[in-house]
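can u pls check wat happens w/ adenosine-5'-diphosphate
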Amino acid sequence: MRILIASPEAVPYIKTGGLADVAGALSKEYRKMNEKVCLVLPLYKKIRDSQIRLADTGISMNIPVGDRVIKGRILKNHQTAYFIECDEFFDRPELYGTAEGDYSDNASRFAFFSKSILEMCRSLTFKPDIIHCNDWQTGLVPLYLRTLYRDDAFFKKTAALLTIHNLGFQGLFPASHMRVTNLGREFFTPEGIEFYGKVNFLKAGMIAADVLSTVSETYSREILLPESGFGLDGVLKKREHDLYGIVNGIDYEEWDPAKDKLLPANYHFKDLSGKALCKRKLLRMLFKTAPKSREERVPLIGMVTRLSEQKGLDLVMQAVPEILSFGVKLVILGKGDERFQKSLRELSGKYKDNISVTIGFDEMLAHRIYAGSDYFLMPSKYEPCGLGQLIALRYGTIPIARRTGGLADTIEDFEPLTRRGTGFLFADYTASGMLDALKRAFCVYTDTEKMQSMIRNGMQTDFSWKRSAQRYLELYKTALQKRTV
Ligand code: ADP
């Protein structure tokens, strides 16, 4: 099958969140399976400034965006990833916006990108069987296939899948931005891509893709409900039979505690001594603890997260004094909303012996927190899939998480009698709900046997991409069948 993965980010090129892990890992998995796959991304400044070697294909394209025609060039890395260069849109410090807000021309930027994807296929004479679109930034692609490119024989057999990684991000723009899509006003209706007076790019993909998917079974059901459908539950309900849930995996080569080069020591589920060393080094680095001090024996809770309301930061802020009253240490690495950054800085100043806060995006520290912590906290308000808990499980770090979306699907609540389970779950989105789960978790901390069996259960659960990639391939076939009927 010829597969094109269209995504606004993908590892190893550029990453701001889990979507990048998914797009990158999936294409890598397909290559192992000998599928013909390529990725297409915007050529952001960060990619250009990186070590990645880019070759010029010599192909440029003229893309209409509203009443302008904008030039894009195609660059590539090996035969597997293509980059759309357009300095006017992508030669900027960030991907989507700065701390002050989103870039004001995001509608133009991603309408351009979406159209470039289709024009690129024609220019390269790469006729995909499936275009696997990801999130609102590529949401217009399925609708373009059905409208502007409907009569184009080149795409006659091309089907589209839209994967929704997070319904909270929809690509919403003022009505005046409809112009840059080059779609007629007839699409600015509730049945089309209008959404409470605005233009909604994600909705474009939701109404036009042959099949839809999201990143866990539970989340695929949750988004059909008004309380978690972000206003799009009605649209999704109409497409319920075309909506699937496929849980994300993680890249087992990148995330492998036995081989991870970013760790001070490696370990395996049969010998966890390296994990203890990782904890010691992490404590020493962040809290300047003395070697072999009593402090090394207290439970260490890690968080690696976007600092946004979705991730349950409100609960953490409320509960910090009580969490610390259990005699634990907390390590937080995150970047995001200024209000959380500010409160976290204050907290770390106030409790500097017990809370370490690093504001920023730091790959190495993330690996070290996953490895060196005893517990990994993810009290998300909602969580489409979540990768943090999967990585934590792989690194023998016990997740404490809210029972929602992918967290509910990938963590098994611990049952002390049977010793089954891999983590601790709580249902109510309240500080007391979270504290109850933390208490249950700390109860087993000194019970070495229980802790070890939980750690081993988690480390041995398979969250590699293999199974999920297989399921996506099946879904592509379903999309192709729907396309031809
Ligand atoms: P999201 O909703 O942000 O996509 P996920 O749990 O699905 O959340 O994926 C987040 C990914 O980004 C994980 O691989 C996590 O380790 C990584 N990550 C998040 N914040 C940071 C950070 N500040 N520094 C390094 N890695 C981070």
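DSSP finds 17 helices and 20 strands in the chain.
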